[in-house]
Design a protein that fits this description.
The chain folds into 2 domains: about 230 residues, Malonyl-Coenzyme A Acyl Carrier Protein, domain 2, CATH 3.40.366.10; about 70 residues, Malonyl-CoA ACP transacylase, ACP-binding (Alpha-Beta Plaits). The strands form 3 sheets. It has a 4-stranded parallel β-sheet, sandwiched between helices. Strands 4-5-3-6 form a 4-stranded antiparallel β-sheet. It starts with a strand and ends with a helix. By secondary structure, the protein is α/β, with parallel strands linked by helices. It is globular. It is about 50% helix and about 15% strand. Helix 10 runs antiparallel to helix 11.
Length: about 300
């Protein structure tokens, strides 16, 4: 029997104007943005809808903005109307996956991501660092490249996005050295990314400590459906494990390729991506080859989907 998974995008999926139509049409959505704005001390609705794009790229703003967009879609659609078997989110998207399954309330998810994004931006400022994308080398080859380049500083695999698309993360000199070595090893592409810092690396340890302290006081429930965790690429339905994994996630790599493999191996043939853009759907089309792919980004997307399931 075929199964369906929900995908929730992470950082770098944002665009100016995302969620504006949902916000304009539904007071329940406006309340979510108001809650986040109060928590942040910034009008996140204005920044999401009007930009500027450079400001929206800042980690402190990007993460809550993307989460709010995903939660806005769920609010308009009514999460109980979606039939699915698993939920997964890429990095910060995991918080939306936990929200749709009831492991976190929408309010707690928003507050946690506001805290997470602030801690991660601070960690970036404390340790000037960067990331790079490597395309065309496998997991072992990238690990070897990072090992060789580590003589220049910290550098580790950070995002296993697909079988041949892997992001690395670390100090400037070490990442630059790894890019050079990756090209020499035959990578189709190896290029530095425009990011705030070394996400999912040991350089985020101060943010990890801060999130552990914060999450110790957040109510986390057993999810209604399994959430496939970034850290393991395996499903979990245990609240205590989820709490630990959210902490580990800050410095551990995102095992998205392994997540997709688990889903395929367990009969998932349908994907519903909820939030801005089509990044995760694009990765899935190459690695999962799903029978159906639905993207719920705009109000028109949601209305079309609602009409279908009705």
């Amino acid at each position: 029997m075929s199964k369906t998974t929900l995908f929730f995008p992470g950082q770098a999926s944002q665009y100016v104007g995302m969620g504006k139509d949902l916000h304009g049409a539904y007071p329940e959505v406006r309340k979510l943005y108001e809650l986040a704005s109060e928590e942040m001390g910034v009008d996140i609705a204005r920044l999401s809808f009007e930009g500027p794009a450079e400001e929206l790229k800042r980690t402190r703003f990007t993460q809550p903005a993307i989460l709010l967009h995903s939660l806005a879609v769920l609010t308009v659609l009514g999460s109980e109307e979606i039939e699915y078997d698993y939920a997964c989110g890429h990095s910060l998207g995991e918080y939306a996956a936990l929200a749709v399954t009831g492991a976190l309330t929408f309010e707690d998810a928003i507050k946690a991501v506001v805290r997470r994004s602030t801690l991660m931006e601070t960690a970036c400022q404390e340790n000037p660092s960067t990331m790079a994308a490597i395309i065309g080398l496998n997991e072992k080859q990238v690990e070897d490249v990072c090992r060789q380049a580590s003589s220049a500083g910290v550098v580790v695999p950070a995002n296993f996005n697909s079988g041949t698309q892997i992001a690395i993360s670390g100090s400037m000199a070490a990442v630059e050295e790894a890019v050079k070595l990756a090209r020499e090893a035959g990578a189709k592409r190896a290029l530095l990314l425009e990011v705030g810092g070394a996400f999912h690396s040991p350089l985020m340890v101060s943010a990890k400590t801060g999130m552990q302290e914060y999450l110790d006081n957040v109510q986390i429930n057993n999810p209604s459906r399994p959430v496939v965790a970034n850290v393991t690429g395996r499903p979990t339905s245990d609240a205590a494990e989820i709490r630990n994994l959210l902490v580990e996630q800050i410095t551990a790599p995102v095992r998205w390729s392994q997540t997709m493999k688990y889903l395929v191996d367990n009969g998932v043939t349908g994907i519903i991506e909820i939030g801005p853009g089509k990044v995760l759907s694009g990765l899935a089309k190459r690695d999962m080859r799903p029978q159906t792919t639905i993207v719920l980004d705009t109000l028109a997307d949601v209305k079309s989907y609602s009409a279908i399931i009705a």
